[in-house]
Design a protein that fits this description.
InterPro entries: Methyltransf_16, SAM-dependent_MTases_sf. It is a single chain. The protein has helices at residues 33-36, 61-70, 78-84, 102-112, 133-140, 152-166, 203-212, 232-242, 264-274; strands at 29-31, 39-48, 55-59, 123-127, 144-149, 182-187, 196-200, 217-223, 243-254, 277-285, 291-298. The radius of gyration is 18 Å and the shape is globular. The chain starts with 28 loop residues before the first strand and ends with a strand. It contains nine helices and eleven strands. The strands form two sheets. An eight-stranded mixed β-sheet has the order 1-7-5-4-8-9-11-10, sandwiched between helices. The protein has a single domain (38-298), classed as Rossmann fold. With 299 residues, the protein is of the alpha/beta class. The structure holds S-adenosylmethionine. S-adenosylmethionine (SAM) binds at residues 95-97, 100-101, 103-104, 128-131, 149-150, 202-203, 223-225, 231.
Length: 299
Amino acid sequence: MSFRFNFVVNNEEDNNAVVEDTKKYIQGSELIPNNEVKTLQIIGETISIPNSNVKMFKRNVSDIKFEIASNEEDGDNMIATAVLQQTDIIPGVYEGGLKTWECSVDLVKYLSELSNDNFENKSILELGCGSALPGVYCLTRGANVDFQDYNQEILSLVTIPNVLINTVNTPTKNSIAKNGTFETELNFSNIDSSKTRFWYGDWDSLNDLFQSQNRRYDVILTSETIYSIEYHERLYKIIKNSLNDHGVVYIAAKANYFGCSGSLYQFLDLVEKDKKFSIEVVYTYSDFIRREIVKLQLL
Ligand SMILES: C[S@@+](CC[C@H](N)C(=O)[O-])C[C@H]1O[C@@H](n2cnc3c(N)ncnc32)[C@H](O)[C@@H]1O
């Protein structure tokens, strides 16, 4: 099977997407940054969140692609395949975490308008984090944040670098060029494991792992993760089972994903039928494709 994954993506990031189906399924597990013993020379860039004072840093996508291409020889590297084929997603193999999708920027903007009570010492989980700007933003406001991506490689290439350059390794003013880019060396052992943890694998098996550890969060964030109807039930299950009784869920998504099987309304239909959550649309942006943030709370 092949199809076109028709997200609208940020500026420089390409939008091609030829996809092959495979039956692989990545088992849930924790990635411990300290075990990686990794130093990494990276190029970062500054992100200004529109209509807000928030500035964040993220690893430059070309720099990530360069690292992937340099290590292409290393075994069965499906992420390298996705990059070389300029593919947004390979279902069940690579689920698109390399780039920063528009709704994650919407979610940061929305979160930046909330008071500090929503963050300080709260436990937060970002599901399908990729470049993880929403979760990283919460970390900078005093929350404890767990990050989850389907691919372990995305955590190492993108998520952990983004955590570091927004927390312990923020660039100095002098090190940032006029165009907002900077170079820095990161050491994975600088991750504060008392504040943040990293999980990879499929939501179905992570749900089992989280349940076995009785893992619960005050806030669950997720952006651009409902594009495939095949994943709706497992995403809903891990959300429902991992939320504290008084917890809040924020789902940022486009109303429709052309060429893909899932839409926001199909996902909300599933939630509504279960009658466990209240559903409130808290943010709408209408452009070529409508983008929304939906807040769920247990009834
Ligand atoms: C399009 S990316 C969005 C990345 C990021 N949230 C953003 O908005 O920039 C979709 C994300 O959902 C996650 N994902 C998709 N299907 C998944 C599955 N079955 N199990 C676990 N994670 C999945 C992947 O980790 C991927 O990073």
